[in-house]
Amino acid sequence: MYGSDKVSDDSERTAFRRAEKKYKLYYDPASKKKKQPKKVDLSEVLDFKSILESYNENSELPNGFNVLRCDSGRPVFSMENRPGFYFIPGALNIQEQCEWIKESLTSFPQPPNRTNHNAFYGPINDLFLAATEKKILVEEGNSPASLNSGCNVSPGDGDVQRWKFFKEDVVSSRGNTRKSISASVLLRKLRWSTLGLQFDWSKRNYNVSLPHNKIPTALGELAKRMAAPAMPLGEGFKPEAAIVNYFGLGDSLGGHLDDMEADWSKPIVSISLGCKAIFLLGGKSKEDPPLAMFLRSGDVVLMAGEARECFHGVPRIFTAKENAEIAALELQLSHEDDHYFLEYIQTSRININIRQVY
To answer: What are the binding positions for Fe cation in this chain (predicted)?
Structure first.
């Protein structure tokens, strides 16, 4: 999901892959001491924040753009050449953004929700808390009974409890003879978690037999409100599953389709949190040149109907202070007692996308 196919010649690339390459993070080989990102031409990137500001000032829209208002009163933008695609800039206020960042790091990776770590470590409990307490995850099969005091159990698949969290000083005092990894590293390597009905990445479908909880009520209500402009007349959105993506420096999400849900007339509700990103919205073939647009913290994108058949991806996030555009978010989180949320989001992006499966 986060990787990319290596193609040596641009002529062999699709239009979508060429756009991914154009906006991807590359470093300037001429920079000696500190790696400096290569400059990239952003002049063709759509900026819905600017479109919103212009619309609020003089009610003008670019050619081919339309606007409607949802119950929240916020303008919802659509494009004539991308039916079924809707963009709601600044849909979430700062307090809401902070709330969902915290939930994404503390609650959403909790079992029975699955994460990319399940395949190797099994379900991991309280990963964010363990990271703030600088704990180490140790394979229990190699850890002696003398380590068992003051540990948190992380049960593996089935009945066998393979891994446990221990305090750093306990692990170091016993010597580094066991397979282990720090919770902070695991947190930074967290790439996805699944809520509600669990998505089976190996089979690319939903596995209703896997243990799962319902979508959190507050997230479900938010998704229903946001989905309204894209819903068929007289129908309500039923949030049944969500995938949470976690992006760090240099991460990207390759061009793909979200095509495993039964009814494509129902939208995917996509919420952006944290550092600014570039989103590519292509066509029904990767040969179709994609539109590039900025996604900022608090923005919401809806993809329904024909838009569900369009390839899309995230080739770039901006973590440098001057480009991330999270000053208001940083200020709000700086007032929190727990500074770890601030430290995390300063170099990260979180995307919550909620779906109606059936």
So the answer is: 256, 258, 312
Nearest to 196, CA basis, from 118, 264, 113, 125 = 113
| Cα–Cα distance, 55 to 67 (Å, whole number) | 9
How many structural domains is the chain composed of? Answer: 2
Q: Please answer whether residues 239 and 299 qualify as being in contact, where contact means their C-beta atoms are separated by less than 8 angstroms.
A: no
Assigned domain for 6 exists? no
Would you state the structure tokens that stand for residue 13, as one six-digit string?
């690339």
Residue 312 lies in a domain: yes
- CA-based torsion, 54, 60, 61, 66: positive or negative: positive
Q: Is 117 annotated as a binding residue?
A: no
* Residues 287-332 pLDDT 10s: 999 999 999 999 999 999 999 999 999 999 999 998 999 999 999 9
Q: Determine whether the annotation assigns residue 258 to a binding site.
A: yes
Quick one: 180 and 324 in the same domain? no
Distance of CA 27 to the CA centre of its chain: 23
Strand partners, 350: 246, 273
Pairing of β 277-281 and β 291-295: antiparallel
Sheet holding 241-247, edge to edge: 65-69, 75-79, 85-88, 300-303, 268-274, 349-355, 241-247, 192-196, 114-115
Residue 343 has pLDDT above 60, yes or no: yes
- Phi, psi (degrees; rounded to nearest 5) at 131: -65, -40
